[in-house]
Design brief:
This protein is of the alpha+beta class. The protein folds into 2 domains: 84 residues, no CATH class; 118 residues, Nuclear Transport Factor 2, Chain: A. It has 7 helices and 7 strands; from the N terminus they run E-E-E-H-H-H-H-H-H-H-E-E-E-E. The protein has a 4-stranded antiparallel sheet with strand order 4-5-6-7. Strand 6 and strand 7 form a beta hairpin. Helix 4 packs antiparallel against helix 5 and helix 4 crosses helix 7. The radius of gyration is 53 Å and the shape is rod-shaped. The two termini are 102 Å apart. 20% of the residues are buried. About 22% of the residues have low confidence.
C-alpha cells in the first residue's frame, strides 16, 4: 500500500500527473512542476528538477540507469527509447510509482483490470461432488422401494412350500373355497349347495338346507374372528388341491361348554375340488 503524499509526480512518460495520495488522477501538465499548485499537505515531496531522478525512481531507491534495468521508465523516455520497459508502453502507471509495485502495473491502472500478484490466493473452484451424492441418494431410495415390494413376496413363496394360484382354473378353485367359507359364516344354504358336490354333502350328513343351516348357526355361535389363508394351490389331472390355514377363536370346549377365555385355533385343511357345472365344486375336505 502506497504512503506517498498528494502532489505532482512524473508518471513515467515525462508528464507531470497529480497523485491524490491513493491513486493517479486525470489532471496532468506538460510544463514544469514549478507552475503546479502546492501539495495538499505539509511535508509533500517537491516536484523533480529537470535531469534529476523522478519521484518513482527516488521511491524505488534507484538511479535512472538502474530504474531502466528494474523495468521502470526513465524520465522523459518514450516507447522508442532503447531499454524502455515493454509494459510501460500501455500508458498505465508502472511499479515504484505511487500505488504500484516494482515492475508491475499499479492498482487502478488505466485498463481497469485487477492484477493478481504471484503467490496471492486464487478463488476456490466450486465442487461438483453434490451432483454425485444426489444421484447416489436417488438410487439408494429406489433400491429400498424395490426390496420392500419384492422381498416379502419371495419369502412368502419360499416358506409357503409352493406358489399361490396362478392359472385361471386355480384362481377359480380358490374362489370356490372362499365362498364355501362365506356359506358357513352366513348360514347361506344356496351358496352351500353351489360350492359342494352331492357326494360331499352326503359325507357331511347335511343333504338339505334345514340340516346345514342349523349346523352353521351352532358353528357361528361357537367361533369368532374366523380367517382363511390360502397356502398352496396345485392342479393334478382334473382335480385341484387347495391347502389352507384357518384361524379362529373357539368359544366352547370339546363338550360344547363355554370357555372362560377364547382359545385361538390354527387348523390346516386340504380341499379337493373337481369340475362341476362349468366350474369347480368341493368334493372332500381333510
Amino acid at each position: 500500500m502506497s504512503t506517498t503524499p498528494p502532489g505532482w509526480y512524473d508518471d513515467g512518460s515525462g508528464t507531470q500527473r497529480w497523485w491524490d495520495g491513493e491513486a493517479w488522477t486525470d489532471q496532468v501538465q506538460a510544463g514544469s512542476a514549478d507552475d503546479s499548485p502546492p501539495a495538499a499537505e505539509a511535508g509533500s515531496a517537491a516536484p523533480a528538477e529537470p535531469g534529476s531522478p523522478t519521484a518513482a525512481e527516488a521511491l524505488a531507491g534507484l538511479d535512472p540507469a538502474a530504474a531502466a534495468a528494474a523495468g521502470i521508465a526513465p524520465t522523459g523516455a518514450t516507447p522508442d527509447t532503447p531499454g524502455y520497459p515493454a509494459h510501460a508502453a500501455s500508458g498505465a502507471p508502472v511499479g515504484a510509482y505511487p500505488g504500484g509495485f516494482p515492475g508491475e502495473p499499479a492498482a487502478g491502472a488505466a485498463d481497469g483490470r485487477a492484477t493478481y500478484q504471484e503467490g496471492s490466493p486464487q478463488p476456490a473452484a466450486k465442487s461438483k461432488l453434490w451432483i454425485v451424492f444426489a444421484v447416489l441418494g436417488v438410487l439408494v431410495v429406489a433400491l429400498i422401494v424395490l426390496a420392500a415390494v419384492f422381498i416379502p413376496r419371495l419369502i412368502g413363496q419360499i416358506t409357503g412350500g409352493g406358489s399361490p394360484a396362478g392359472s385361471d382354473a386355480e384362481r377359480a378353485a380358490v374362489e370356490v373355497v372362499e365362498r364355501y367359507d362365506d356359506a358357513w359364516d352366513d348360514a347361506d344354504c344356496d351358496l352351500y349347495f353351489e360350492t359342494t358336490t352331492e357326494g360331499y354333502r352326503q359325507a357331511l350328513g347335511m343333504t338339505d338346507c334345514a340340516a346345514f343351516e342349523s349346523t352353521a348357526e351352532v358353528f357361528d355361535e361357537s367361533t369368532d374372528e374366523y380367517e382363511i389363508e390360502v397356502d398352496t394351490v396345485e392342479q393334478t389331472g382334473e382335480n385341484i388341491t387347495v391347502l389352507t390355514t384357518e384361524r379362529y377363536l373357539s368359544l366352547v370346549d370339546e363338550n360344547g361348554d363355554p370357555l372362560p377365555t377364547p382359545d385361538p385355533i390354527a387348523e390346516p385343511l386340504q380341499y379337493t375340488l373337481v369340475p362341476a357345472a362349468g366350474g369347480w365344486a368341493i368334493d372332500n375336505v381333510q
